Amino acid sequence: MTDTPAFEPLSIETLPERLGAVTALTDRIGTDTAAWSVREVGDGNLNLVFIVDGSDGSAIVKQALPYVRLVGDSWPLPLKRSFFEYHALVRQADRDPGRVPEIYHFDQDQALIVMEFLSPHIILRRALIEGRRLPDIGRDLGLFVARTLFRGSDLSMAARDRKADLGLFSDNVELCDITENLVFTDPYFDAPMNAHTTPQLDGIVARLRADRDLKVEAQRLKTLFSANAQTLVHGDLHTGSVMVTDTDTRVIDPEFAFYGPIAFDVGMLLANFWMSYFSQSGHEAEGSREEMRTYLLGVVEEIWSVFAAEFSTLWHTERTGMLYPRTLFEDQGDHLGAQQALDAMLADIWRDMLGFAGIEMHRRILGLAHNADFETIEDPDLRARCETRALEMGRHLAVNRCSIASMAQIRATAKRIEKEIVT
Ligand code: SR1
Ligand code: MG
Fold this sequence. Notes:
This protein is about 50% helix and about 10% strand. By secondary structure, the chain is of the alpha+beta class. The chain folds into 2 domains: about 15-115, Phosphorylase Kinase, domain 1, CATH 3.30.200; about 120-420, Aminoglycoside 3'-phosphotransferase, Chain: A, domain 2 (Alpha-Beta Complex), CATH 3.90.1200.10. Helix 10 packs across helix 12 (about 335-365) and helix 10 packs antiparallel against helix 14 (about 380-400).
């Protein structure tokens, strides 16, 4: 019996020797490891990411570290997140083909995934900061969330398969714990790792932390997050988890995957477009971003309308799971009942999506993990003005989610906040 080699982080120097015998990699990039060129490009909060260029091609090697990279080894984090990322990618590839990178190889003990190098793709968040308008992302991301979230649920899967999967992903405890704390709780009190633009935001931060309605909503949403195991969610679906060209959209990094509410992924995604919207005036030095703002609100509306349309199509054509069985509706000739049930489910998703979006907007400004949309605005007064608008919008979405009826209302609110908050 051979011993499994103990986990060892890769380095630029050791990668060719350590992975030179992995045929799934050498088949793609070439066997001459002496000709490989390796760069470490990880700029996320958690992992190592290498680009490996060989004589015949390139590949990505992503490796988990036993701690949170952003903070250091004082915050241990299990390597098994790589296992969950791998399994989520496999399921997403099946549920929405072509929308995630192709996986070439997975090594559970070394917590590494070798996958397709996406080129000339760039991170969507970066493209939006630059003011680039990608034509297809509304459609692509709307389809992605509808297909992955519907097809991972009890609306579609055999109950036995879904329960087995629920068991598998239920062990992703530590990554859920990060979200439970960093997203739903820490922003609303003076938690040790929090940070915000100070002193400019001190006043609004104090007001939000004293806002009882907001805190209660945040905890109601956290209850949904932890207890509503509706489907396999990506779990961290922000614009930094999407890579784009003008003609291609890929979703990456599902290491936070677990069984949670359908509305969570949709809300987190839309929140990041609304944050991009409110950050645009911080990037206006080289020209107006008015058209970009219009574009971003349009993308939000397209994601939601494509999501709802595709979810409805799947409801009518692929509803093979144990929830809302056709035996109870269509097979009885009760098509109206099937439609009524769908409308009710979409209404629930809409309401909770708005809440999750509001909370996500808060945590990126008040918590530990900020986003580049705001962080790249150098002038702190200007940055704080953008952040204040996003905080107000987030509060509105979270607290008033039950009475917001349409995207038209949200568009009007966003434009009013953008125009009227000037300090
Ligand atoms: C400690 S991890 C902080 C954040 O980075 C990840 O991308 C997730 O968004 C997480 O909340
Ligand atoms: Mg990530």
